[in-house]
Amino acid sequence: MTVTTSGPDVSTQQRMLPLRPLAHPRAITIMSVLALCAVIGFGLLVARTPGWSASELGIDQWLSLHHTPVLDSVALTIAWLFDPAMALAITLVSAILIGLVTRNPARVLTFLGMIAVAWGGSELIKWIVQRPRPDATLLAHPLLTEHSFGYPSGHTCFVAALGLALIFVARDHPSRPLVITVAALATVLVAVSRVYLGVHYPTDVLASIVYSLAASALALVIWLQNVVPRVSVLLRGGASPQDQSMGS
To answer: What is the 3-state secondary structure (H, E, C) of the chain?
Structure first.
């Protein structure tokens, strides 16, 4: 005799948790941890090596000497668009739109979690490394003055995290190649704009991209391998797959 287990029907389960684990989670975890350690280690090195920052400052100074009104407007608009307050608003609006389009709470939570880890964690890296920003008084045309630590770039981390989260949300959608392209271009544009404004060294923004990739990947592995399966069990009425198979 077959015993059926009560709980949400199959369509409800598919709508709630259609998330597949990543391939090769162990390899992704190891590579992500190594990348995070490299980002922190490199940051500590350059923050305590004045000659390194002095050599990078030449790039900021060259860009400052070649400012144009159009590029100034673009860079300042990017700085405003992705400042913390606006970034938070973009995140919330995006989460709402994803929820309305997919009707999938799991994807919304994944989107929010990836951004929280990658963007929020960048503040922890700043505090650990404590690398000063370029000295604005040494630039030909300083446009912004920011006083927080500069490694990594919060703006770049946010845009990279946003792009990676959207890429994952569009994992099974035909538009994913377009999302990847737009996310990559947006990340590069923001990274370059931060150096153009003279508020970051080039390695600040490069480290931001590496950090965001590693932090997002590690968060995904933990979420998909450990959290989602447990939530799936709860949606099935508290019975594990093994328990359900014993009922027949």
So the answer is: CCCCCCCCCHHHHHHHCCCCCCCCHHHHHHHHHHHHHHHHHHHHHHHCCHHHHHHHHHHHHHHHHCCCHHHHHHHHHHHHHCCHHHHHHHHHHHHHHHHHHHCCHHHHHHHHHHHHHHHHHHHHHHHHHCCCCCCHHHCCCCCCCCCCCCCCCHHHHHHHHHHHHHHHHCCCCCCHHHHHHHHHHHHHHHHHHHHHCCCCCHHHHHHHHHHHHHHHHHHHHHHHHHHHHHHHHHHCCCCCHHHHHCCC
Each residue's pLDDT tens digit, 22-47? 778 899 999 999 999 999 999 999 99
Model's pTM, two decimal places?
A: 0.83
Write the pLDDT tens digit of every residue in 181-223.
999 999 999 999 999 999 999 999 999 999 999 999 999 998 8
**Domains of the chain: which residue ranges?**
29-233
